[in-house]
Design a protein that fits this description.
The complex is a heterodimer of chains A (203) and B (337).
Chain A lengths: L7 H9 L4 H22 L4 H18 L9 H23 L17 H4 L9 H5 L2 H12 L3 H11 L5 H8 L3 H19 L9
Chain B lengths: L16 H8 L5 H13 L1 H20 L5 H14 L18 H22 L3 H55 L3 H23 L18 E4 L3 E6 L20 E7 L8 E8 L4 E8 L8 E7 L4 E11 L2 E12 L1
Antiparallel strand pairs in B: 1-3, 2-8, 3-6, 4-5, 4-7, 7-8
Helix pairs in contact in B: 2-3, 5-6, 6-7
The chains are: A mainly alpha (203), B alpha+beta (337).
């Protein structure tokens, strides 16, 4: 793989010009092949489909390089093309009604090996739903809505999406310590508002 | 998660990729930023897209774990063919996966020679520097694959020895049965079994190629048949949708203190190799082994003989291995009574 720290802009510049076009395109391809492969693979495409989608993505890069003006970061631009390519492929697949797509393996819990349990890429959402009865949930949901905006978002990401502090911080562009403080305050408020039932409520 | 995107693709109630990128790059006005954060807090699909974006950034910055080089080479060659403005890569750079395995041992020299010719023809341009690096990487990949194939061949030879032992056991059995009392049905079964094993052995001897010639897993019905000797009961666990089928006919060959499992993979896409793991109830690994996917009993599957298993509950995992992936095919509970 070509050097990862080599600046991209000169490579893109050569790609736009007539000279050195092949070489710079090959460098781009080599450098971003595996990141793209992992992206498509993560979306559940087979190896063969990943190969096709990567080619499709690079064809669009090759044809559309003039349109890249640097208003976003290059790898973000490439990501956007890849994401569009993936959606088009899924639509095409849905239209063709092809079956046999591989499903992630998910065990039912009892007696599963760690590999089985970890087979699905999706998290088990909403531990809240499992823990609390309908009425409690209603109360808690309403109390969460009344929290200040930033605190409310932290709580939702923690409770509804089961994310850890670092992930919440990344998503809301906050520091992990801010997230921690927000969740600490939120817990106090919710316990005060809702009383005994939430005495050991964990955020 | 098919996070929808922008441009011609409508994003519905969700955040488009373009807006999400603007958010990530800190280019959204405050009000829009707030609204987007509010949506993110409620929408796992959009946070998923954001996480994919972050993972892609990290991978693009060098965190990615590369896979087998021939895949990338193959993709590049197909791509280059679709771009009229680009020169095609030379024949020396054909993906090695397309060559029969036995030819590869002798072809390293040819690769060097072809690479040297290629370089001489191109001359010392900047393009050649790139090509030299690629050739070196590819040669390293060829050598690694060669080693893998040699170890797979050794595994196939061990399987051959195992099959020969089974054949001998079946012959002994038939002698015992015909010697004591004539039981036509049992004799027929055993004779059929012997014919099957003999045929498989012949086939194996004729084609001593290593497994792993299949770099692609073709689509097809996914099922594995698994049967065990009568004193053992099996419960199949189906992790996915129709992955495997448990139960089946009892294995006619029976020996004291030995569990015989016949695994039928005929309805399953061919894997280069299968891996089996037997663990006890406490999760302790008792045995693990590999069987080539295609050589032992033709395409029909493989047989495992496990000795020294006392009464109790065990778990058997079956995984299919191909050069670029491992797939869990099934997990069985094995009750030894």
């Amino acid at each position: 793989m070509s050097r990862q720290d080599e600046p991209i802009e000169p490579i893109l510049q050569r790609l736009r010009e007539a000279t050195g076009r092949e070489e710079s395109f090959r460098i781009l391809f080599d450098r971003f092949y595996w990141p793209l492969f992992r992206f498509f693979e993560h979306r559940g495409f087979s190896t063969e489909e990943c190969q096709d989608l990567i080619q499709e993505t690079f064809l669009r890069v090759y044809r559309g390089i003039e349109a890249f003006r640097g208003e976003s970061r290059w790898e973000h631009w490439l990501f956007r093309i890849a994401a569009n390519t993936a959606i088009k492929a899924l639509r095409h697949r849905a239209a063709a009604k092809r079956t046999g797509q591989e499903m992630p393996l998910e065990g039912d819990g009892e007696g599963d090996s760690p590999a089985l349990a970890a087979g699905g890429s999706a998290r088990t959402p909403e531990p809240l739903r499992q823990l609390l009865g309908m009425e409690m949930r209603e109360l808690l949901t309403r109390a969460i809505e009344d929290l200040p905006p930033q605190m409310r978002r932290c709580v939702r990401l923690r409770v509804l999406q089961d994310l850890d502090y670092d992930e919440i911080a990344e998503i809301l562009q906050l520091s992990p310590s801010t997230v921690k403080v927000q969740l600490f305050k939120a817990r106090k408020r919710l316990q005060m508002e809702l009383g005994e039932a939430f005495a050991d409520f964990d955020l | 998660m098919d996070g929808k995107s922008d441009d011609d693709l409508k994003s519905g109630p969700h955040v488009g990729t373009r807006r999400l990128i603007a958010y990530r790059e800190g280019r959204l006005p405050e009000a829009e930023r707030e609204a987007l954060q509010e949506h993110l807090s409620l929408c796992p699909r959009c946070t998923g897209l954001l996480r994919e974006l972050r993972a892609f950034e990290a991978d693009a910055a060098g965190a990615v774990e590369p896979g087998p080089e021939p895949l990338r080479q193959e993709a590049w060659e197909s791509l280059a063919r679709r771009l009229p403005g680009l020169p095609q890569t030379s024949p020396a750079a054909r993906p090695i996966a397309a060559l029969p395995s036995r030819q590869r041992a002798g072809s390293s020299f040819l690769y060097y020679a072809a690479a040297a010719l290629l370089l001489a023809a191109i001359g010392f341009s900047a393009w050649s520097a790139v090509t030299i690096r690629q050739e070196r990487r590819r040669l390293a990949a060829v050598e690694q694959r060669l080693e893998e194939r040699e170890s797979a061949l050794a595994a196939a030879q061990r399987s051959l020895a195992e099959a020969e032992r089974q054949l001998q056991a079946a012959r002994d059995q038939i002698q015992v049965i015909t010697g004591s009392k004539p039981d036509t049905r049992a004799t027929e079964l055993l004779e059929a079994r012997i014919a099957e094993l003999t045929k498989a052995l012949d086939e194996l001897r004729r084609t001593p190629r290593a497994p792993g010639g299949h770099d692609r897993i073709s689509a097809g019905p996914r099922q594995i048949d698994l049967s065990a000797a009568p004193r053992f009961s099996l419960r199949g666990k189906e992790p996915g949708d129709g992955f495997l089928r448990g139960g089946g006919a009892a294995n006619p060959v029976r020996q004291a203190d030995r569990v015989r499992l016949a695994v039928d993979t005929s309805g399953h896409p061919a894997f280069a190799e299968y891996r089996f793991e037997l663990v006890d109830e406490a999760g302790k690994m008792l045995w693990s082994g590999r069987r080539p996917g295609r050589s032992l009993l033709g395409d029909a599957g493989t047989t495992l003989a496990l000795s020294g298993l006392g009464p109790g509950r065990y778990r058997l995992r079956i995984e299919g291995l191909s050069p670029d992936s491992t797939e869990l095919l099934g997990e069985y509970v094995l009750d030894v009574t």
